[in-house]
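User: Second chain of the day. Same drill as before.
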Amino acid sequence: MADVDHFKHYNDNYGHQAGDVALSTLSKVLSESIRPTDFAARYGGEEFAIILPDTRVENAGIVAARLCNAVKQARIVMSDGKDLPSITISMGIAQMCPEYTLANLIEAADKQLYQAKQKGRDCFCTDFSE
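Assistant: Same format as last time:
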């Protein structure tokens, strides 16, 4: 799971249209930064789910670090050409287990996302060894 850091502040300071442009940019960066077999989708609000099939958790950490960096470096531009401030994301990594339901997986990823926010944002957390 990925969540835009301080998104309410972004919307409050730059406007909801700017927030929409930031989310569109984030979506594009996520889609362009993962394999064709992976999947990124908006989960709600400013939160996204990134599914990495057949990926070991260690490799998911590598992907998460790459995504955090790509998002931070992405240029966000309004339709009139005006540059907007960049955004960062925090991520929580969870691995599907045989005993998990989809709800368990999302809950585990959300727990790790919360840990990343507590850790200082613009990072990822996982409860598995990295």
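The radius of gyration is 15 Å.

User: Great, on to the next one.
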